[in-house]
Amino acid sequence: MERVNFTQMKDGTKEEYEFLTAHEIDHTRHTAQRLLKALVDLDESLSGYQITRLGHSVQSATRAWRDGADTDWVVSALLHDIGDIYAPYNHDEYAATILKPFVREQCTWCVATHGDFQMLYYGHHLDGADQHKRDRHRDSAYFDDCAEFCERWDQASFNPEYDDLPLDFFAPMVEEVFARTPYDAAVIRSGEREPLTNAERAAQRQ
Ligand SMILES: [Fe+2]
Ligand SMILES: [Fe+2]
To answer: From the CA of 156, how far away is ligand 2's center (Å)?
Structure first.
């Protein structure tokens, strides 16, 4: 079979749906490569800053990596603004939706809400904006993690002089994350928190 015969889904046969499932699995295998390509496309979005959105993404991931953050954190930092192209009004939720089946819940939550947390840094300069929008998330177990994510990796990563690692450096991490079994409880680890930095990890061990 090269393609199905049906023109309405309700007319498809078991054989056709098995054929499509196999196709879908093959397509899924290339998610990481598609995301890396989408990141390169970010180079063309949002002018006005000293660095491009791709530069900002790579710099965020570089800082996460140098802080000793684990793979879930580093990949989340790399992809946190990938929604800028198609979802300018909810780019955080868009990125979180992509990450959700494959990284820790803690990381997904921080990516999903980082837009509200980032307001802390510029909300007071904009008419009608709420600088303390993040306060609506105070009850979350991940509040401090997102505050730190934004302080260390997001708001700090607009520096054209910073020594970024190349995007290729992060490709194997993106490949590893998106090759995981989706929604694996051992990955999602609902409610569990991993520190963002080596220093915090060391302090926890004492
Ligand atoms: Fe963002
Ligand atoms: Fe960002």
So the answer is: 9
- Cα–Cα distance measured from residue 136 to residue 194, given in angstroms and rounded to the nearest whole number: 23
Is a pLDDT exceeding 90 seen at residue 85? no
Domain containing residue 181: 51-205
What is the distance in A from the centroid of ligand 2 to the CA of 201?
Answer: 24
Model-wide pTM > 0.70: yes
How far does the centroid of ligand 1 lie from the alpha carbon of residue 115, in Å? 5
Q: What's the 56 CA to ligand 1 centre distance in angstroms?
A: 10
- Examine residue 67 and state whether it is found in any structural domain, yes or no: yes
CATH code for the domain in which residue 174 is found:
1.10.3210.10
73 occurs within a structural domain? yes
Tell me if 3 is assigned to some domain: no
**Percent of the residues in the chain that have a pLDDT greater than 90, as a whole number:** 89
Ion ligand 1: residues, CB within 5 A, are 81
Check residue 46 and give its pLDDT: 65
11 CA from centroid of ligand 1 (Å): 43
What are the backbone angles phi and psi of residue 34, rounded to the nearest 5°? -65, -40
Domain count, the chain: 1
